[in-house]
Amino acid sequence: MNTLDSRFCRDGDSFGQKFSQPGKYIYDFNLPGLDQLNKEGARFSINVSGADKDKKESKQHFVTVRYREKHFEADPPQLEIAAGDFVMWSSDDAGTPGFSISGHSDKNRFSSAAMEQEAVYTHAFGLPGEIEWGDANGKGASGKVIVRMPPTKSEKEMDAFKEVLKKGTVVVIGADKASPAQVEIYVGQTVFFAVEKAAGITITDRRLNVDISDPAK
Amino acid sequence: MPDILVAGDEAAATELLHDAEATLGTLSRTGSGSLGPFSANWGASAFFAGGTVDLIAPNIVRLANCELHYNLHFSFSFDLSNIIPNFCLPQICVHIPFIGTVCTPTVCINWPTITIPLNFSDVVRFTSDFTLNAHLSGSTWLIDVVIVGIPNLQISVTAAAILAALGLAAAAVLVAIPFIGLFLAGAVLAITAAIGIAGITGLLGPILSLFVSGLTFTVYRQPRTFNVLPASGAFDPAVNINLDAIAASVSHTNEDELLIAVDIS
Asked: What is the ipTM of this complex?
């Protein structure tokens, strides 16, 4: 639990995607890359209509990911949204296994294991430490998150910490650069890794990167 | 009047007891029991050492300051949710320039079930009376000293030490659980307070009693047939005597002595 890896979202993680282009997107939950084996048979869909000219703000939609009888389920399984809306997936149960989300329309695609544009991965950090993150696909940016234990011994300190918990930290990721490259937070705080434009990257704790290109080595 | 009478003073009896302790070796037990509100599985091993003998006529061997060396391992599992209140990360909203306002859902932490293991070694000294019991076991005469009742084991100081060690063990397990660091001190306090000294003594006392209850040291062991002279040829067979009866007692004359009386044929 609580590992920083957009390929393996778990309790405390969220993955979000802005849908700027209209179209019908189908998607599913799987291990990274496995969605390509079943391009037509994805069970969940998002129908993105053209943007309303009078619309001032994009709307956010939440999808809860659950695990039932050895299958992931999306709640709701189908969404009707407008272009420019944002959809965020997360689980609400620690028993839900890690998952990646990937889908596509005729022209566009999205994946938590290969984020390209207008995608967000959020992670609530549960343990203190220094976590260096990078792209497990070997293309993108990298950075560091320093997580400290807040003082919570007195009621006053706990109240102050509760206020801190409400504040998120944003790291914007461009083609090959994260800004800021290093952030410092308290345990319990959430970092939003927002991918503006990239070549299909992951946000992954570098300690999780295992080279399996040649298992015989 | 017995055919053979052997006498040993308290120093000799002490030496016999120490040999018997070594022969008894390390004893092991396993089981489960209550640890305050929790249920614990435990395994324990123990051996006896030291002590001095005070002989009291007519049949008491008092062993003073005998050391019970024990190693105790126990573990208990419980659902952390039962002692730590629910904790939810609030919804967080941020503004991302190329997306707009993005919010996370509220995330409530489901605390896991944890197992806390503990190893603890210590020595407890006790003084207890034993009675002498000479008996034939198969074809071997044994003289046992058998504990009378169950001695009072002073474990309150030990219990406090175990509770402190348990607090450290709990902290070591808890610190690896995400988000619990914020409640670590409170969680450790909740666990140790729930168990308390009473919970430790409630587990430890019966475990140690298992080792001392019915404690028996065999201080003398002799085959019933005693070989006096070995055979030295076809026409010169071995000379054996039979130990028909053995009795053990404590006698007080000018000093306290352990007496072994033997009838032979």
From this structure: 0.90
